[in-house]
Amino acid sequence: MATILDAPPDDIQMNINLLNKDLDAHLPFKEIDRNLLIATWNIRAFGNYTRKWKSEEEDSPKRDMHSILCIAAIIKRFDVIAVQEVKANIRGLRDVMKLLGSHWSLILTDVTKGSSGNGERMAFIFDTRRVNLSGLACELVVPKERLKGDISKDALEEQFVRTPYAVSFKSCSQTFILVTLHIKYGKKSSERIRELKGIAQWLSDWAGDMNAYHQNLITLGDFNIDARGDLLDKTFLSEGLYVPDALQDPLITRSIFNETKYYDQIAWFNNNSNVPNLSLDFLGAGNFDFLSIALRNRNLSKRSISYMLSDHYPLWAEFRIA
């Protein structure tokens, strides 16, 4: 049986080469001691995979070794990436780490139990040549007093369905905390508003605490926000969180199925008089649209690609460090 470290068939290697050229064309390059590339990616049901170079119609799961090569090639372009929808079975994640090499590391949560949690983990994958852990790793839990609020005013009735995960990192002399989350999805916006407001309030309280571990807070992940300017977006920004204009551009799509959705976000505090603002210099941001290149030599449908790579595009932001 082939392993993920074996040389792939020629047609797959050719596709990976094209993918790498497309990444070169659309993403900033890593510059030693000069920039920091932070990303978020909801990798659909990122768990087990079929250990074949090309899965067949009857195979389950649909994700195969070609897909794993593509995922690793994309992740490699960032310094640290928050990944949502990592499942209990981490075979795919383990083999991505093998491809990335010994200078890459990860930190992740245990599985969120229950039907709403969907058996998911949160993870951070990072290049230890550029980024290292700086001491803090925690899940965000709402104080019980806040669970007793007036539900008509969008108070939380219970803890987050999938508990947000915060980890502190250091790059050169810069320290920062990344908070990743995957907000509950529901057909009605009211099912998500309370979680969005709850996380915004939590971050505002933390950023405003002068005794906090670090005050450079960046939140990123799948917020399940439908569209820019809708009620969910306004609720998420209600505590002073800021989304850069580069990530509000309608051309920066998040979903391979619906270009109008505003699901994934990267945000921080900026020009806010109530809390310390981000001290990292923001340089730019965008997405990576893998649909036109990755796996395209196989004439797969969008639906098939969504199960093999994802139904979400990676979202990234670049910062200057010194």
From TrEMBL:
Transmembrane segments: none annotated. One of its GO terms (molecular function) is endonuclease activity. Residues 39-243 form the Endonuclease/exonuclease/phosphatase domain. It holds the Pfam family Exo_endo_phos. Keywords: Endonuclease, Hydrolase, Nuclease. This is Endonuclease/exonuclease/phosphatase family protein. It comes from Gelidibacter salicanalis.
